[in-house]
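In response to reviewer comment 3 from the previous cycle, which asked for concrete evidence that the modeling workflow produces usable outputs, we include below a single protein chain processed end to end. The sequence was submitted unchanged, and the resulting structure tokens are shown without manual editing.
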Amino acid sequence: MISAIRLPGALQRYLNGTVDALLGGASQRHRDFARPLSEEALVPADSVSWRVFKNPIALFVGGTAAVILELAEPAVRAGVWEHSSFRKDPLNRLKRTGLAAMVSVYGARSVAEPMIARVVRMHASVQGTTAAGIRYSANDTRLLTWVHATAAFGFAAAYSQYVQTLSAQNFNDFYREGAPVSRLYGAIDSPHSLQEMQALFESTRSWLAPSAIIFEFLRIMRETAAFPPPLRWMQPMLLRAAVELIPEWLREGLGLSEHYGLRAHERRLVKWAGACADRIVLPSSPAVQSCLRLGLPMNYLYA
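The workflow returned the following structure tokens.
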């Protein structure tokens, strides 16, 4: 059984601020997580999802892996690259996406459902044509299913690989818990199990293709300061950890050679960081604020 780590006050405040910055100022939006009192979220507090999403290492690594998988699909790639602020302001785009994920999992229903509806309305105007001349729409159910499935895959795989091993049943529960939220976004066929996730990857395999944009994304993420100076040495390492989550057959197809993966000592460091992060209670985090909203102990997800 794990136990929470108590940190000195100054270090606790520093880590609170670091994680808060990565989530786009989530602690300044208490209404999204601490209110209304006693109101349930779209995903229950005793879920695998609540434990996975509390871990900042799993979120950063898994979210990065999800973007790589998104960019491997030509229509999704065109939509992300041509209709978002990713190239000009990648960090804020990632922060907004991260905050939306937090609200979807932890936020009270009366907060999460209107936010999701706003996102769906915004996506309605995102349309275009890929370089190969294929028309796409951001609200296409096939594309939405790929985006939400790859996000679920990334977060669960990162937690299992670098934090605490998840069983097959844990994975199945995680995918099943997220499916109702995905449907609200329009992803009506999101996988409910490991088997369904593997089937989706197999059925999408012929659509996936290499692109210079994937390497541009990795370059942008290396050069964009997502972490404060004392922790910035971790950033390139966590990017390589994300690459290693991509299925081997797809890494080869995308040209992501061993150069883009972790070294042995880095793999140990990432696992150490992930395990430590899983035991540090961050009072201002969405996970803890949401526990308090439901009348649960601050360390509920850490015991």
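DSSP finds 14 helices and two strands in the chain. We consider this sufficient to address the reviewer's concern, and the full set will be provided in the supplementary archive.
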